[in-house]
UniProtKB/TrEMBL annotation:
Gene that produces this protein: brnQ
UniProt keyword Cell membrane present: yes
Keyword Cell membrane applies: yes
Function: Component of the transport system for branched-chain amino acids.
Protein name: Branched-chain amino acid transport system carrier protein
One Pfam family of this chain: Branch_AA_trans
Amino acid sequence: MKREIKDSIVVGAALFAMFFGAGNLIFPPAIGLFSGDQWFFSLIGFFITGISLPVLGVLSVSLSGGTISDLASKVGPKFSLVFSTILILAIGPLLAIPRTGATVYEIGVAPLGTFNPLLVSIIYFSITLFFVIKPSGIIDKIGKILTPILLLVIGAIIGTGLLHPIGIPVTTKLNNAFSFGFLEGYQTMDALGSIVMGGIILVALIEKGYTDRKKQIKMTTIAGLMSGTLLTLIYGGLMYLGASIGSNVSPDISKTALILKITESVLGANGLLVISVAVSAACLTTSIGLTAIVGNFFEKISKGKIPYKATVVFVCAFSAVMSVVGVETIVEIAVPLLVFVYPIAMVLILFNLLDRYLPHDAAYKGAALGAGLIGAVDAVKALNFRALNAIFEPIYTLINYLPLANVGFAWLLPALTLSLVFGLRAQRTTKLETSM
């Protein structure tokens, strides 16, 4: 029993560290700054998409079988393959992994002096490659080595900021703080990452000798709750610090400049060195976890034809080049893809958790279709092409009339409606076939 608790803590610490990467450090302070005295309501919205959903995602993957393919399989094998590949690329070399390298340079290295961004990126991803080139023991390396460093440094920043406030949250003109926080939670990519992180957690438990499914689910649940608690405390602290410094900075300050200003205000001259360590640890844990996931995914779907080592080497090399474009650019690129994929990911997570209550597996197809249609329209809108916006304007207006559209849930009613239609129709067809 003691061993189970110890291993659950290590896995939970590693899961927290993999979640707490680039976006998790730079987005909460920016949300706090924009929300001002309403920062707590933004935290509640952020809690849903940035904390609760990722934890549920890990549990959902564990319940469905342990892989992203298992999670999406009830929609259909072709959909599962396409969706899994898009998701892996999104949280992998196209967006999330390069963003960790860009953040390390902009927050952790550039403030300390003049350095070549490409050289810094190469060194950073070489360290990532060192950790992931051998897939076994990755969770232990993260949970036992990198997580304590991360918690110590971030805890020092937040703790000092709470004991010695840097200001008072100011009143802002934000109309719906909850909705703002909810939508900003998308940018962490953690709900998407959780779907694939669930797989690496399962592999780690199997490596430790836990082969019983019930025990795996129990330990995954404990690890998820632990990581969720840590994330809530740290997000809340960072959001408060962002709100507190509102009267001392321009509202147009960049996300990276904001976290640097906060750290300097809290810790003084040593702040730059502290934040450098914090950023490097936070981003490295995420980069290591996601790179390993990408390597495992392509080796599995190719049945060994695309070797794990070749994939992780390519991912590190590609990400080293991609990260040079900068954090803000990567964030802008991410928006259309995220608003399309997120609703689908959310219904898959929720439906797998509620699987026993669904009338038929066809319900998954209806839900994915409904969420995907709304997500596709939102993606077109996020592209912000004038010609497309003119064509889609009537659809945008219609979607705004859907229930909960103002808080980011426009996809919910179409997903539930089509899920019910598909599920009941398939159930009825099955009964007719059985009676014949």
